Amino acid sequence: MADTIKMQTGQVAIVRNEAFVGKAEALKPVLLEEALKAARIVEVVADAQAMHGWRAREAAPAEALQEREYKKGDAVVLDFGDHRVGYVSFDVRPVGSPPDAPLKLRLTFGEMPVEMAEPFSSYNGWISSSWLQEEILLVDVLPARISLPRRYSFRYLKLEVLDTSQKYRVAFSDVTVRTVTSADTSAVIELSHPDPVIREIDRVSVKTLQDCMQDVFEDGPKRDRRLWLGDLRLQALANYETFRSDDLVKRCLYLFAAVPDELGRVTANLFIEPSLIADDTYLYDYSLFFAATLHDYAEATGDEETMRELWPLARRQVELGLERLDETGVVRDEESWWAFIDWHESLNKQAPAQGVLIYTLKRAIAMAERLGCESATELTARLAEVEAATLARLWDSELGFFISGADRQVSWASQAWLALAEVLPPEDNQALMLRLLAESPDIGPTTPYMYHHVVEALLLTGCRDEAVAMLKQYWGGMLEDGADTFWELYDPQDKSFSPYGSHLINSYCHAWSCTPTYLIRKFGL
Amino acid sequence: MADTIKMQTGQVAIVRNEAFVGKAEALKPVLLEEALKAARIVEVVADAQAMHGWRAREAAPAEALQEREYKKGDAVVLDFGDHRVGYVSFDVRPVGSPPDAPLKLRLTFGEMPVEMAEPFSSYNGWISSSWLQEEILLVDVLPARISLPRRYSFRYLKLEVLDTSQKYRVAFSDVTVRTVTSADTSAVIELSHPDPVIREIDRVSVKTLQDCMQDVFEDGPKRDRRLWLGDLRLQALANYETFRSDDLVKRCLYLFAAVPDELGRVTANLFIEPSLIADDTYLYDYSLFFAATLHDYAEATGDEETMRELWPLARRQVELGLERLDETGVVRDEESWWAFIDWHESLNKQAPAQGVLIYTLKRAIAMAERLGCESATELTARLAEVEAATLARLWDSELGFFISGADRQVSWASQAWLALAEVLPPEDNQALMLRLLAESPDIGPTTPYMYHHVVEALLLTGCRDEAVAMLKQYWGGMLEDGADTFWELYDPQDKSFSPYGSHLINSYCHAWSCTPTYLIRKFGL
Predict the structure, then answer these.
(1) How close A178 comes to chain B (CA, Å)?
(2) Within the 235-274 window of chain A, which residues sit less than 8 Å (CB to CB) from chain B?
(3) Which member of B127, B135, B273 has the closest CB to residue A141?
(4) Which pick of A229, A275, B77, B347 has the fewest CB atoms within 10 Å?
(5) Which pLDDT value is given to residue A32?
(6) What is the DSSP letter of B29?
(7) pLDDT-based confidence at A7, cuts 50/70/90?
(8) Which domains, from first to last, does chain B contain?
(9) Confidence at residue B11, expressed as pLDDT on a 0 to 100 scale
(10) Which ipTM score applies to this complex?
């Protein structure tokens, strides 16, 4: 292409398409803002029954704050009443003598009570501590209105006076968050459903999606605040049932399409600031999802022009996916982080990745046919080979499960993804999912992301009651455990589970957890 | 006065003179700026012979910085080659993969190597830790140019990477300080003197004054960054011999004059931002210095108009000073912090305060006579009474020293101030100062502020050689110990002395230490 330039980032050469960058830029949304006050003063107390062992209880109404005085070592926790994403500002004034030394404050933002209770200095996980939402401020001139330049994702804010001087104290007032989102809530049709639990799960799903919708679909507004393809696919599906910010999906597709590598691979995630950069992380499933997401977008919007323009890159992802097949027609397994699928330490990725490949191949063929491309015929032929290979190599008819990897692992992920891929005939596919529930193999789902695929596979195979039960049990469990927005990680058997080494760093408003609204509305649950 | 309003700050009612505020505002100087780069990379190493036990030695030229990469836990110390006051900015760029987590940095600014070597978390003094110059920054978008909004006073800057992520490191470049001062160095005549030590003491005095000259005369650009009357008086004297920013002295006089309390007392110090506020600290000697500083200003500038306008308030300070005399004509002593004089825990303030009163009274009389005021006669009569009372009550002819307080303390401060007050005949005054040097009573000077008054008393009494020797020994000692600017505190016998509980919090560029240039130039040393 004439309008592309090559850029070297890390070890990967990127072929940048400026026309696509321009299209994405033109679709950049305006952020909607709302100024909201702190709702109340709370105390965070130990409670063995509460999530992480901590519960916030009301200590005083928010109005009491301005009357209170804080000296060195004092702290107060404010509760904003619900999950917020935005920019915080507040007034601070001296009490006593004129302030004869700077004021030193620590601000701690938390989505969950645990972030107010357990010191961030105790964090010892393997991903960066810089995700912990904390600021240390030195204020030279008082009184002052402090406006923090960084965006935070939180419900709770701890204001902590690290030092004043012996001559003065401080008082806080008008603690405000200017929330930001590109999601227009007026576009969402309220769910009319007789089951209040389903209604609440839907409401919190929509709120989760809303808080992740910024100038791109972010995975989580606390962490990583970034556009990941695996999250985008699910956010887009939820969006078509709710906000209908379809241009934001289109923008994100063009952003991914603008920076493939020289092989044509689409990156797993993008950095938007200071300029568009493809991360040097490539995941087998995520690259394929570029095609699946494009398919879903065209289905939902009828935007054939975009489909046509991005089709060559979508087809390329499928070709690259097929290139990974070994001589027997099964994707080559590997020790490294080559596919995501789920956060499970022992999960073998081969069979679920095979499922993602077939799932995507079918959608690619649908696009090729719609566009009248010759490649439809070739892809259809390849599909048949791959499906045959899957049954020959990965289906264990004695076990009645798909197996994965050299150790023939039987996991939930393998069954769910190969059910979604519809390799088996419908009745066998349903039997597979019911067998999965009945036998419940050890290697289970660990994230809402994987639970989503299990529930969707149940719905696809006609196991509606089981799907509803699982949805209510899993996402409803989060609600019972205090979720204002749905969490990145939730293992009912191990509620402090974190793949990062600490629950402090988990994201408690995470895009891939927002899908119940899609499942409920799309499938009419 | 019609143009005054009363304000209540703390327990003190302030009578605000808006006309004076306006005059001071009109004299606000423009700050001169200069962009300066870091000079080199240094290591701070333990050295028992060095000040505080730490010495900075060159590790690499400054240009090497941009080639170096820093990961979590790494740090680098930059040396700006001399003392700087201003605003710091630098470039930071990621190295490796795109930065997938915020960058967390700690910046530590130090006037002395010890501030780079001893962690601020070890500080346990009684004044606020918020004076320690440290910032913790979280940077969301890289590369970035970081421009810190606060002003720092430093020679050394430690850049410390608290966290990045496992995927990237950072590199720093173009670390720059935009220095600020209202002092115009081109106005200073270079000292021509055969003694290189005297030349160097003069140069560093001028640099110290320069760095303290901002939109007011600050006591220290690190701490307290505030306009104190005791410092102003000495800065003004040094200024008349060097920068001749006489309007800045005038501005400061009007600022003090704008906010006396309802008794007419002038505060010991002022806050300028966010608006002019009189601190609720009142010190006997500092209030009197309003009159002395006005006298010196008028002497240096011939500005009789200002003298005339501020004279009523100057006279009022003398009246208030006289009101503190007991029935025998000696200032009433007290346990509390009623006069400053010097940072010496055991120093009794009575006799030195008596000296300050007489010293000021004589200058007030000179002003009254110049202005043709009737009060000259009355003040002259009071002076005779006070001098007689001083000799009767405070002079111990057996000891040959002035004594102070109920315990008849013999201190350097008492002798120096009563010598400066010229209570004794000239030959006795000289004998007093020589006796002071010979017998060296235990309660000695602890600050350059007090040393200044001892040296000036020696010069006044004709002990020129002794004055030069002390000046070279004391300020020259600071130079030998590594001073770039003269320090707030320096006790050659206890080099870690701090009245605040830690040498980390001392100010190492302090206005009251800048007087050698005045002593050298005014007295033609």
Answers:
(1) 19
(2) 271, 273-274
(3) B273
(4) A275
(5) 98
(6) P
(7) low
(8) 32-181 (2.60.120.260)
(9) 63
(10) 0.96
